Amino acid sequence: MVKQKMLRKIRKRDGSIVPFEKAKIVNAIYRAAMDVLSSHRKADVISISIADIVIKQLSEIFNKVKIPDVESIQDIVETSLMSEGYNTIAKSYILHRQKRSEIRFAKNALDLKDDLKLPVNTMEVLKRRYLLTSFGQLSACFVLPVEDSNDGIFESLKNMARIHQSGGGTGFNFSHLRPRGSLVSTTKGSASGPVSFMSIFDKATGVIVQGGRRRGANMGILRCDHPDIVDFVEAKATKGMFENFNLSVAVTDKFIEDVKADRFFDLKNPHTGKKSGTIKASSLFDLIGRSGTGFCRRGKQEKSHPASRQDRSDKSVRRTAVTRLRELQPRFDKSLENGR
To answer: What is the pTM of this model?
Structure first.
């Protein structure tokens, strides 16, 4: 008795070779069976049994040297359904196959590549608005680092303008900028602080038409222990301020613990790393709630981005902050209501 060889790979329509997946055959037959029978149990039994028959035939026809293509597999599915007496299901399968063929033709005509099998209208909208602009931009959202220097700040501003002009949105973490009133050694003057520089980003956004269609949008973040955190939170509540920004406070585990314990919380100068003041954590938390400013935390993916490499050594921001924020949600909701 000759042992059947298991299929390992198939050839897609574009010529690429990918691993063979029985589940895809089962799912295609299952959809056709459900259209006819409207019974999950019957459709499940039929799809699995027909898929086994299809795989057996494929194993007999093809070997390790010859790789089956998608169309050949679908042809065998059709003949297997009909040979087993499921003519109505076979018709449903054929109609679905024809519909997919028409969609592929339409996408090719529009020069669209789609691995997610999205509807044609959806792909056309994505192409025009998000996927690819006349500038060749393939992404819609960008996180830009903001360094604590005039050169670094205005380099980010320049990059923001380019991104907005080509249809993208931008996010910034302003936590590395020294607080308002800090000494600037090169000029012997005083620093303007992150909120002041954020207003420049906001005004620039207001005059740049994004992708020729609409104004751009920004996300601004400041750490809860930054000395200018109160100015940051209150800025959003001021009418006419930061109309092109969504603002969020980056919270730490210690801040959440101090809110729960109703303790004072240390503020730290990011330039010197030294304590520069204290604030009652619960008061700051309530202020955030009343102003409508959101919370955020660092996630795993952010660690690989240049904007986050600046503060990799900070171990206080962890995932548990989200869990603890949920514990404080009732208090936050109450603060939000009071601010309305």
So the answer is: 0.51
